[in-house]
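Working notes for the structural subgroup meeting. M.R. asked for a predicted model of this chain before we commit to crystallization trials. I am recording the input and output together here so anyone reviewing the notebook later can reproduce the run.

Input as submitted:
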Amino acid sequence: MRRWLRDLLKKGIGFKSTYLFIYVVSFMATGIAGFLFLFGVFNFPESTPAVGVEPTAAPSSPSRFATVSSNDSVLIDVGKIKCSETLGKEYCDAVRDAAIAENDEISPYLTAITSDGADSHIGDYVVDLEWKRKRGESLLLTFAFTTIVPPEYPEGYRPGEAILLTQPTWVTIVPELRDFCQNPDPNQTDLRLRLHQLLGLPPGGNLRSLVELWVNPQDLFRPSIDPEISDHESEILPPQSSRFLTIDPGYITWFNDWFKKNYSSDPPFPWTLLGYTYDWGNPVSDIGLSEFVTNTGATVGVGQI
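Returned structure, recorded in token form:
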């Protein structure tokens, strides 16, 4: 186990592993309200219609309605988003704030990922990404959170083996979480709660394991309005298709499906739509960690668990 994580575990966080996270959500819908299993793998509906976002759509004016474009056929009333009072006012306020992406919430400091094994440079700051070469591919180390621990993992889900991801999986990259864990707030006594806040997860969640996954960058996208992973910020409008850039209609469908599913669930997550987790425990800034999602069908290598 990495020394930084071992030291952190001694201070009160009761789960294992190293460098990066995956928090995965798996849910089954019954009627309009979904039954949400936290931190597993997203189970996206194949037949749910998109809410009407088009790459060329104009932005809607900020309002109490969460929306992505003026062409939305379904809008979500922020005031009617379900969030149990037992989760606390801070978390529920974060959910409602995150549902509307605005210009002043764009972060220019997202970690950029390229396929050449390079580090991510943000001004003079260098994000030291972890890479390895295997069979001619550059693989990036990412981190996954899950609620299950060995030996509950399915056969083949063992360190050193490759697995096929059958559903999208949410991850972050190594250095950001590692740096946070190595420099915890000395005034924060409940480190487990603080980690949930950083990742934009509800208080009282059941994070039990951290899993390293080696991922080809070509199998990653940013779960934001602008899904590109090679730049340092996400826009509040989908990029327009051009002779140099093709927007996958399937991504727009995925984005809208998850937008509706998340903010119609109880409890929802404070999904920022802008490529970073919503840190609802930081009084100075709600910008958390850069987040990414793996493509369905991606083959990844399992690192430490």
